[in-house]
Amino acid sequence: MILDKFKLDGKTALVTGASKGLGYAMAAALAETGANVANACIGDGENLRKAVQKIGRKYFYIKADFSNPSIASDIVEKVTNSLGEIDLLVNNAGIIRRASITEFTEKDWDDVINVNLKSVFLLSQAVAKKMLKRNCGGKIINIASLLSFQGGIRVPSYTAAKSAVMGLTKLMANELAQHNINVNAIAPGYMATDNTAALREDAKRSSEILSRIPAGKWGQPEDLMGVVVFLASEASAYVNGYTIAVDGGWLAR
Length: 253
Prior knowledge:
By secondary structure, the protein is an alpha/beta fold. The protein has a single domain (2-248), classed as Rossmann fold (3-Layer(aba) Sandwich), CATH 3.40.50. Helices cover 42% and strands 15% of the residues. Helix 1 (21-32) crosses helix 8 (225-232) and helix 4 (106-134) runs parallel beside helix 5 (156-176). The chain is globular and about 50 Å long. The chain starts with 11 loop residues before the first strand and ends in a 7-residue tail after the last strand.
């Protein structure tokens, strides 16, 4: 049965930044499909704990500030010791800073690059080493952005990081696919999350954005649940190095 290929029973998933928003929705979807979930985030993660344990899955929380990317190896060890070997990594944690190119500070550049790119690489590297040692394959899912495809405005470090995430996804797939490790990415469109609060509260900017989205509405975190389960499961066994946009048709416009 094809539906059996989507099951994640007994798998261990590490999701970063899963206390709320997109990360919460994706982690909840993985748990609903059978996975035990580790959440590495700066928030408290209590709501996710309740959701995961309510459906009978195991849950592990790690307080993690990815502005210090060197914590990656420690996170992997703690998850492995608590839930067992990691079968699936979702690199979701991210931040954004907004200012014009002439006013953007070096600190805002470094902060975003550390969280959105350097931590993605180091955590993927640490997990991949474990997967290769086990020789059992695995899944790595990076969270890219529409700004992996486009330039945007007033978010130079975010655009640079998310463009690099898409490139890094391809590079990792090229090296790891032969070892049965699938590396892919999801590029969310304009979603109703904390990162877009300022845009949604700006009536003019929100109207401009909505007028370009063929679906005519902001996306919701739940819109990523299906695609993350697909990429995490056996159903996507021959999908490698691809970035799937979940954008209401924005890139098609």
